[in-house]
Amino acid sequence: MSMAPVIAVVGPSGVGKDSVIAALVARAPGIHRVRRVITRPKGEEGEDFERVCVDAFLKMERDGAFALSWPAHGLLYGVPNGIAQQRQVADAVLVNLSRAVLLRAQDVFGGLIVISLTARADVLERRLSARGRESEGEQARRLDRAKAPLPDGLNRVIEIDNSGPLNDTIDEILSRFQPERKKRWIR
Q1: Contact, 100 vs 72, CB < 8 A?
Q2: Catalysed reaction per UniProt (predicted)?
């Protein structure tokens, strides 16, 4: 039995990664979402994730609980080993990753497809401000990082502008996959 591909959704803060992932899972029942482990402090919400303290994360890492782990934005992120079981039963598995870890993810998962979300600067600024998780200074740093390129050496990248309506973004993503997969994934 072949393993389902891992689809990494990446992009700058405020681009709508969590919304896109949730909408893809809702529209395409064969696509499953990986729930990450994050050391995000209480009071900072966002995606559906498992919140752990730094000490618990480091113990999980030492115990081999993660298929992939990395630091970003002062937090620690982990993709649980359970992704292997998800890949056996799904048509594809979605995970929100950081751009800096993509080459490692490609090595770990093979068959990695990257959906690189972009949005106009004014859209990013409005979304970051609306979510209220970061100070103005942090928002400015995140907007500066939005221009960072993807690493060289990725096998398959699908670039999508998510400045407009979410349904348009999802339609575009699904249309970019092979037609036979698209038929299985869409409700």
Answers
A1: yes
A2: alpha-D-ribose 1,5-bisphosphate + ATP = 5-phospho-alpha-D-ribose 1-diphosphate + ADP
